[in-house]
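This section describes the prediction task in plain terms. A model, or a person checking by hand, is given the sequence of a single protein chain and must write out its three-dimensional structure as a string of tokens. No templates, partner chains or ligands are provided. The sample shown here is typical of the held-out split.
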Amino acid sequence: MSVAASGRGRVQVLPDTVADQIAAGEVVERPASVVKELVENALDAGAQAIRVELEDGGKTLIRVSDDGSGLEREDARLALQRHATSKIRTATDLIGVATFGFRGEALPAIASVSRFELETCGDGDAESEGTRLRVTGGKLDDVQGAVRQRGTTVTVRGLFYNTPARRKFLRAGATETRAAVEALTVLALTRPDVAFSLTSDGRALLDCPAATRLIDRVHALWSAELADTLLAVSHRAGPLEVTGLVQRPAQARPAGRKGYVFVRGRPIRDPFILRAAEAGYRSTIAPGDRPSLLLFLDLPGDAVDVNVHPAKLEARFRDKFFVEKVVEEAVRAALAPLESAAPLGIGNREPGVWDGSAGIGPGAIPFEFFPRESQASGSRLPAPVLQLFDTYIVFQAVQAVSIVDQHSAHERVLYEDVMRQLSGDGAPAQRLLLPLTLDFAPAELDAIDAHRELLARIGYEIEPFSGRSIVVHTAPNPHPRFEAARCLQELVADLAGGRFGGWQNRLERFAATYACRAAIKAGQALDVEEMRQLIVRLLSATLPAHDVHGRPSMVQLPKEELERRFGRA
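The expected answer:
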């Protein structure tokens, strides 16, 4: 069937104005899209300070001003033509491109659906002599000289004034403002060294001075309350380096988390990377809790394609599984040191930095961690320990007072022990002189049958007896105060009731349940040797600062905070 016969018009080339408006649909969805494109251009121009002004959420006015390199007059004219760009020359330049705006669509697309003004002064212009261009609906109205300092200001009025169907889909001013603030927030995270500000209807919503550290930018964007919960990430595997900030497990919550991923400095949306990062929290947070994450991935340009989305919000990795694995390892490594324990009283301290004890890692107790008197004795055990309220163990480290929750600490130790036992030869068990006979409900007997092999690996040898009874011949012995019957009853009740049902991994769920029930309890008085041995075992754990429920097993009172409180700082 011919085109004419089908009732449609003949094939024709669209006018430039229509093509520009169609292209605008890919780049400009709402005022926040305009803010994103213009701020990215400013960053590519080397700006050190960027100001954004909005009226009515950007529907009435969007103005972005910067102090970047600016454009000379002829370049300013060319920048308003489709496919004009200073960033690429050949198709191969698209591989590993290190700039934000290279597609050459943003300015003409925005200008085609607004009343647009570009005021700019380039490095090659005469002193104080710049250029002002006015465009209405994609049509160049005027080109004039302008007096201004080096940089560029773009003013966008009446967005979508000439495409009423699209303007109708814009949300309320407050909603559009929030979207614009979020767009600027994401870009501000990529460049802490650049100052950003945003005002809406004359009210300042963002004011971020230039900073040397990412944590200072987080503090300016959100609050000290959030910044103080974050830990530094710094991990490299092969060609991939992962840096950024992740939240302490104890502060993770089911809602309200902030999750950002940046690849080669470019913000992207990738739920799989965030999921891999959350996997790094395994056995440190309660099921359902979601930590805040700011992750920066740096890898060679030919290992990632950032051109798979019109707005470059997605990326395709050459080896996706390798990237996810390294991200998980990076988060796990950030949670491992004792520095990840919550400090008491210190605000806006750089995450991961701990003078005098940096570098404390899992699996070994560093000799320099303890005071000199302990070192002089040749012992690597903690110096004198003290139990408070029959629940907390206190001891002195080199640069801090460490306070340990004895139940949480023992829970962490037992969890890691049990995970090794479940994947190895099992745990040593002691044969009971008088076997235990215990009664269970039908659902609990089903749980015992389902976990019989795992129960045997931790030391419980069980056989059916009669009716609802079972006989226990051997039991584990994790500490002198261990009550074998009570632990088994509580463990089986938890397994039957699904109390730890949020754990996806069956072995981890079982190990966490047993560790919780078998660990030393709060309120139990311990002798000095028991406390010292518990601390030694905790400091040798993989994740010593966190228990399996998302609570801290240890907090630190830094020496610097004590000195500040007593006026010695």
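For orientation: Residues 1-6, 352-370, 372-380 have pLDDT under 50 and may be disordered.
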